[in-house]
Amino acid sequence: MEIEKYQIDAHNQELETEHQRRFDFAAAENPQVENIISKLIQFQIGIPSWALGTGGTRFGRFSGGGEPRSLEEKIEDIGLIHQLNQSSGAVSLHIPWDKTEDYEGVKRLANHHGLRFDAMNSNTFQDQPGQAHSYKFGSLQHVNKAVRKQAIAHNIEVIRQGVAFGSDALTVWLADGSCFPGQLNFRKAFQNTLESLEEIYAALPEKWKLFVEYKAFEPNFYSTTVGDWGQSLLFANKLGPKAYTLVDLGHHLPNANIEQIVSLLLMEGKLGGFHFNDSKYGDDDLTAGSMKPYQLFLIFNELIEGMDAKGIDHATGLGWMIDASHNVKDPLEDLLQSVEAIMLAYTQALLVDKEALAVAQQENDTVKCQEILQYAFRTDARAIVQEARLRSGGAAKPLALYRTLKVREKLIAARGAKTIATGL
Ligand code: LRH
Ligand code: MN
Ligand code: MN
Predict the structure, then answer these.
(1) Does the chain have fewer CB atoms within 10 Å around its N or its C terminus?
(2) ipTM, 2 dp
(3) Of the residues 120, 171, 212, 323, which should be mutated to test ligand 1's pocket, given the most ligand atoms within 8 Å of the CB?
């Protein structure tokens, strides 16, 4: 299904007076609003193909119905939310969860919906049917060279498929590690992983990037071979200029200062990509901004500071992506909420008075520093984000229109109540 332009127009007209009043106020309060709006229009967030179905836990999975049954239907779903918010213009695929023989057809479909192909994701954390060797004890780190070779070949195959889609980056997340002390020789595991990554790196086409994603724990609970940003950065530095660290907000030990990590990675020119989500405990993969919106704002504040210092374009300099999935929400509603939270945090961070902050920092005026940051964080940025969305042809209130148009009901009618999307 697709949403018709007249439906978006009718919805927008109904809300026009209210929006105009709120936007006029925001514009009067924030003289830099036009500059911010042009940045918001450019800013696009990649949607992971695995977030379109209901995410399960290891205890159960409760499908909401109407889930996409194929890669084409996943793209159709992202097309729907992009139509509504005009900020979800990219898709990130996970191989082998996403399968096709018709690359050109899928590309045409994505193009029709205004979507490009973000980073490709390989999967060596599950065994696939018919696979010769098991990843039970790791993949790129494995003590047995034959297992490593199989995992390397898979990553190179993912690059090949990515080329066919027109992607330009590969994200490698490894579950590799150990569950009990003594199980693994840390140094050998690191060296095996490095050697394996070197082979994958050598297969990257000219303009491609390799993102090394780290994660502190799960599924291994004693050690993870790419367990933190230090280990990821070591790999990225040893591999070369096309290799970068990828930060997933849920992949840290509790209370980690993620905004500081981001700042230093940017300083080193090694921050490549981002997986947005939120968490209370571990890698909860909750809706971005649902738990710690201030942290999200502080991260954006450092991202903007670091990117501006290096002259990196906000929209194209890094790979921006959501990585969340749920048991209790409609996945499309959840994604609309995540994108909105990201756009709000980005806007609030753009509103920070950077010059005044630099002066206050220089004067060690801690109180003033906090006032400056929190003034921006407490600004109601909703009308600014809404204005940017309206100018791009999106809906004033994407979630409300999604519900009014009964999109989920229509997807269930078209696809059935018992469909299951491939993914987590
Ligand atoms: C690992 C992870 C990684 C995977 C995705 C499915 O927890 O964040 O990015 O590829 O989940
Ligand atoms: Mn991730
Ligand atoms: Mn994760």
Answers:
(1) N
(2) 0.99
(3) 323
What is the helix (H) or strand (E) element at residue 117, kind and residue range? Answer: strand 116-117
Ligand nearest to the CA of 224: 1
62, 53 Cβ separation under 8 angstroms: no
Neighbours of 11 (CB within 10 A): 20
Which pair of structure tokens corresponds to residue 120? 């490709």
Please tell me the total number of residues recorded for the chain in this structure: 424
Q: Is 248 in the pocket of ligand 1 (CB under 6 A)?
A: yes
270: which 2 tokens? 């090694």
- Ligand 1, pocket-test mutation among 173, 246, 285, most atoms within 8 A of CB: 173
Q: Kindly indicate whether the domain formed by 5-415 is annotated with CATH number 3.40.50.1220.
A: no
Across-strand partners of 48? Answer: 92
Distance CA 116, CA 52 (A): 17
Question: Packing angle between helix 229-239 and helix 186-202, nearest 10 degrees?
Answer: 50
- Render pLDDT for 263-292 as a digit per residue (tens, 0 to 9): 999 999 999 999 999 999 999 999 999 999
- Non-local CB neighbours of 259 within 8 Å, separated by 6+ positions: 295, 298, 299, 301, 302
Domain-by-domain residue ranges, the chain?
Answer: 5-415
Residues around ligand 2, an ion, CB closer than 5 A: 248, 275, 323
In this structure, the strands spanning 169-173 and 209-213 are parallel
Instruction: Report the predicted TM-score, pTM, of the whole model to 2 decimal places.
Output: 0.97
β-pair type (177-178, 169-173): unpaired
Side-chain half-sphere exposure of 152, counting CA atoms within 13 A: 22
- Whether residue 424 has its Cβ less than 6 Å from ligand 1: yes
pLDDT digits (tens, 9 = 90+) for 128-151: 999 999 999 999 999 999 999 999
